[in-house]
Amino acid sequence: MDDPLVCVVDDDDAVRLSMSLLIETLGLPVQSFASALDVLADEEALRQAHCLVLDVRMPGLSGVGLQERLSRLGHPLPIIFVSAHGDVPMVARAMREGAFDFLQKPFNEQVLLDRVQEAVQFAAAQRAARGWLAEIQARIDSLTARESDVMAGMVAGRLNKQIAEGLGISIKTVEQHRARVMEKLQVDSLAELVRLVVGVGWSAESKNGQ
Amino acid sequence: MDDPLVCVVDDDDAVRLSMSLLIETLGLPVQSFASALDVLADEEALRQAHCLVLDVRMPGLSGVGLQERLSRLGHPLPIIFVSAHGDVPMVARAMREGAFDFLQKPFNEQVLLDRVQEAVQFAAAQRAARGWLAEIQARIDSLTARESDVMAGMVAGRLNKQIAEGLGISIKTVEQHRARVMEKLQVDSLAELVRLVVGVGWSAESKNGQ
DNA sequence: GCCAAATTTAGCGATATCACCAAATCCGGC
DNA sequence: GCCGGATTTGGTGATATCGCTAAATTTGGC
């Protein structure tokens, strides 16, 4: 369910086919699309996709348009643009927006293969990291409101006494919550907790204030 | 000593002058160079530089060549390329290597100004972050070998007893070092220490092993 | 209204940490 | 050989944390 998939998008049937065949020589599964909208419609493919090989100029939604849509969906996916009509501003814009590369047709086949391989590798690493963050985030989300409050105090380096004072509750209660936080986060030291929590980009803006 | 400086590099005197004058309308100090090598030779300018406006095609060292040199020197500096002869592979390469933008001549003056302003702002933020990291790193470097060992244990979440056991010393010694670590790092809680230390990308590869 | 979960508080004993103190030893440089 | 910093160990008392158990109260949903 997490196999790398390469999606090729080009409105030219011949080009699409030849690129697909070429990339398949890497041993990677390839799915091809005739338009950018077809890609957006295929959620399954988007989930599996580790790399997008995208023609810039296409009828309907352009390659750059698709890039923008995906970006807005918070769907970080390495995109390799391929174009015969690329001009400087277009390339610069695409790259600024995070494109993985921009190749000009006719391109060297080996270059495309190399870039695709790099992109897939990059995406795989990115997915692994994302999965780990999601796991941690899930643990944090499993905390109750009060437990979150206490965790904030712990990460801030406050003593139980100070946390209790800040929340207007007794030290014993804080101890109780503290123990449950450690349990739910599956850590057995404050240091581990802090590393976990700062690792997911936590700061103190979830839903607590004290 | 940390004033933003914009460096303009172009072998064409007229272009160099007009770009310099244009950028100066932003109220930023500008220094212009006729060749890439001149920039590399001016260490003072490189220190002050918050942004490089660089012609790609120049006799001697090219703009891309300069970018590569600076990159190898570990000198992260936002570079805005300006070129009349930009082709797709060149732009893609420059952007992949971290260029801030790539503008084609003749360019819209306002676009250049906007990008320069963004780049300077970016560089300023980057410098601030770098300065902070350097400050923390200096504190960590001021630790003695043994103190570093103990700090590693603290960040790893080990108890003083375990650290002592691992290092083959008494708990009392660990407590002593621990106190000095907190003092030197200027923190007053373990949580703060961990945040500081993981913030500088520390992991356990400095010079300790236990 | 009842049930389940969340929140709250408590006691107790074992451990750990903290903040002082003082001092012996070791090692490299002048 | 002497000096200073680094490393080491010890004492003592106050505080804090940990792990366990137990239970009262509140809250929200069926």
TrEMBL record, chains A, B:
Domain Response regulatory: 5-120
Domain (HTH luxR-type) ranges: 136-201
Annotated GO MF terms: DNA binding
GO biological process: phosphorelay signal transduction system; regulation of DNA-templated transcription
Residues where 4-aspartylphosphate is found: 55
PANTHER family: DNA-BINDING TRANSCRIPTIONAL ACTIVATOR DEVR_DOSR
Origin species: Zoogloea ramigera
Protein name according to UniProt: DNA-binding response regulator
